[in-house]
Amino acid sequence: MNNLFKRFKHFANRSIGNRISIFFIPFTIVLITTVGMVSFIKYYSTLKDQIIRDTMKIIEQVGNNVDFYFTDIKTPMAMIARNNNVVQALKNYGEMTPQERLFIERDIEAFTYNINSFKSYIGDLIIVGNNGFKLNLRTSSRILYNYDFLNADWLKELVEKSEKGIQYISTHECDYYPKTELPYDKIVSAVLPVYDNTQNIGYIICDINLRKLNRIFDSLNLSHDGVIFMVDQQGKIIFHPNEEN
Length: 245
Hints:
Layout: H1 2-12, H2 16-72, H3 74-82, H4 84-92, H5 98-116, E1 122-129, E2 134-136, H6 153-161, E3 167-173, E4 186-196, E5 199-208, H7 210-218, E6 230-231, E7 237-239
Antiparallel strand pairs: 1-2, 1-5, 3-4, 4-5, 6-7
């Protein structure tokens, strides 16, 4: 009984400050911890939103630049596909005399040179006929005469589909040039099937200069683990800065 009384008396004699501190210190620790956690969560959320906004701006900018290249190639490809000399070569090349072949090839070369003079993002324009006709820009390295475009791994699937309109082929080998004259190691291509009424007679292949695309992607200010790449409407990768992907 005396021991209990002494304890009560000792507690009663404590200062108000001491008694308040017993309860205030734990409360303060909990409050600071809670405020810190809330502040961190808010800061992290704000930072994440800012990163997302900045990334979307970069993607929009890249999209506009790349869209310019891929949209602008449609005009020269369509002009070549509608050119009368091109259509005649794709239809009748096998029946032409050597002199007729020479004349029509020169006319096509002059035509393609004129429409491509100021489009540095076009690596090459190649005309391929189902009848064996093959011709590319005279400003580029000459393609291999015996190269079988229609059965090449990178083009064969598109040929078998027989779809109309421009289609894109992801990064592939450009092994249709002599090894000593390879303009690029890899290339991205746009392909436009050419039709005479309803009959497919050949293809216009536009090789897009990868150096131009790489410059766009290399200029991006992304985090060290960030990457932007292009896919087509089906989700197939057209271009990836890391070619292995």
